[in-house]
Amino acid sequence: MNVTFTPNPYGSEVVIGGGAIPSDDPEGKEFYIKTERTNYFISSPTLPPTYEIKYGAGWSPKEAEVRGTFTGQGYGRIAAYIDYSNTMTALEYDGSTAWAVRLDGQIIGIKNGNFENVTFGKWDAEKTIKTYNQDGTSTTTTESTDQLRLADATCYPGAAMDNIAPRCDGRIETNIPLFLTQAEAQEYCRTGDTTGILNGDVPVTPNVYDYYMYNRITTTVGAGWDIENLFRYKMNSGKRLAFYLSSSWGIDEYDRVLVGSDEIEQSYKGDYYGQDPFPESNEIAMRALGEQRKMQSGTTYTPVMYETNIPTFDTLAHAQNYIDTGDETGIIDKWRTDDVVPGEIGDPTDTTEQGENGAVFSYGGGMFRLSNIDLAKFYAEAFNTDPNVMQSILDGLQLFGSNQINAIHDVMYIPFNADDVATLSSGNDIYLGSYKMTTLTGDRVLKNDKLINMGTHYFAPPYGAGDHRNYAPLCRIFVMLPYAGTHELQIDKYIGKNVTLKLAVDLTTGAGTYFVLSNNTIMDSFDCQIGAHRAITAVDHAQHVAAVTNAILQTGTQGIKTVAGATHAINPAQAATASREASKTSLNAAGLGGVVSGAIGTVVSGFQGMQSTIDYPMTERGSFNGFLGMFDVKSPYFVFCQMKTKQAQNLIAVKGKPSAAGGKLSSFSGYFEAAAVDLPSFSGTEAEAEELMSILKGGIYID
Amino acid sequence: MSVSLTLYKNTKLPNHTSRTLNPVAALAVPDNVIEKFDLEDPVIVVKNSDYMSFANGGANYMHLGAPFNRYYFMGTATAGADGLTRIPCHVDVLKTYLQEALNADVIASRSSSNYEIGLEDPLVKVLKGYNYNFSKFNYTFTPEAGQYILQVGGR
Fold it and tell me: What's the gap in Å between the CA of B40 and the closest CA on chain A?
């Protein structure tokens, strides 16, 4: 992609190439940076036009490459950003001086939670510089270095001096994830967020672990946690881990003990949020707490997070049997473990693979990116008043018969840089039929082959992992996608996950499709119309108007999302409550352009007696059409609609919380309300037994 | 034959497993003190003057020995013209059978000690209105400074 630096009124362009590779755990990996400096010249009113400084001390065209292995230990990720500093350096020509803004590169990494400059001293690298001379020859030097930096073929894209307009175009190619700003590079190092990456997608790092255990334990519910065991384990090939329930219930032990730890090849300990892999560790957590326990000390320990794919067995013998044979006899709370024995049809996978458009547009009709100035030139030439020119054009359009105007297929306005979605070639001739335009050239679209990656962000559960208040109807999320409208997302798909947005655009029509990914897996997609077409003929105009009008009419009468020409993806909210949708569609629009909004009543189970209707918090709508979309939001927004809830501070002590636990009554403490009771032995009367069970179901305090 | 009768002042509610029992009186009473011989709902008959002394001690709870071997809540006493006070009682099954109850196999619907925060809780009150929180992805379209795509037929 091309990057034009600002503030820079001189139009210097630097082409970014290469292709980022995962930089997490960079030790021992090979990285490179290649730079090229081209088209360096100065123009000034006091000098001959385009006074070109190409050859001279320090300013010759250069190609530089630094390639080496990273030797720094203990780093998480490394990234590079283009240090667009205002360091001034003198540029001499003809005895006068000018100033230029230096362009340099910085490489940072994160180690022990701190950002460090890893440009220097952590590389086993080799640097090659090729310098071109005026006579066409070149000189190449090679040397070993412990640095990896861009400065050796620096681009100087701008100047601060009056009447001086230096320009230096260039090329930077690297496989280190490259960002324009330091902030973006730091965010990538910290979380893996690829927003703003210049050299393409970073491939997903495959999991280096087999098991994970995320366990946070508190002595005071609602006040954070006191003990944290966040671990991932890589096993020796084919080996298993398991928990078994400890025999001492609530006295001095957690309720789960790990078996099979001697076959752990590597342990990873670390932050639950977004970092993959965790740093390597010499620790192994041998116990976990899955249920609240009152310890012998009298302190009650409560798990506020317990997520694992390590299965739990009722006895040590069953757990050991599972380790040895894979037999799941005695497995318990299998329903609590994440992604253990998921449904599978085909081979299990962590990602959904997206395709790439391989169609080539280099020939047989052209697609060109033009500025508004070039477009004006095009129209001026195509509708030239000079009869000779007009005749030449008509001669070139003979194949179009009497419909010569049909040689102009489409003019479409796009609100983004075509380089983001296509591979272009600059300075190409534009042919109308076989007539070659003489007053302009254009950037030709060779392939419409790129996805726009809008970045990845982690969605932390608002109330902490597992809390029912994180989910509908108490918490809902909507996404406002530019040109695609506002849509509700099913929150379960994204909570606690890395959420990525990608956009594919069809430059031939201006249609787009947003992909919403959860942990690199496509979960939702939404179609839209981004490009707005300029009519060439009256027929075009009538069709464009009809398309926009029909879309508005459809939105108005249906009251929901679909717009003519933009198919709508499955909306899980619709699928979940058909009655709600029926209520919605029964409200017709007030008129042309009207969109149904507002409160639709629905009864939500579990809230009887509380609140019998839940208002629909956001109005959904579908894609825009025509130029109206240009007034839509410019960036994707997520809207979190959270109902205000109130829970008594002493609720747990006075009335407990919903439970599905079972066991002996003696294993519970505090408030207890039974859903079912069985008395293995009872020495009283039948009436007393019934009364006792009734009391237990009515709620008691075990104190 | 006599039955041991121990009177207490209890200060714990019936739905607690523990009882705070302050002794008031311990008696060995003849059978005819028990007017209604009912294991679950006996009626105790005592002289008015005896009842007054029990009441002054705050007696509201009782244990009857064999053949009852049960704990009882004392109900509202009724003084009779015959100089006797009748006290209806009801068995405290939770205290009497506590060990058997603690040995019961149960499934909880609510619990202070073993609960699941992922289960919906109807006791979480929902207030009117929503909190709206906007967050943004940092990709920006440029409709104010877009580009044109020209499609032509030709070479």
Answer: 8
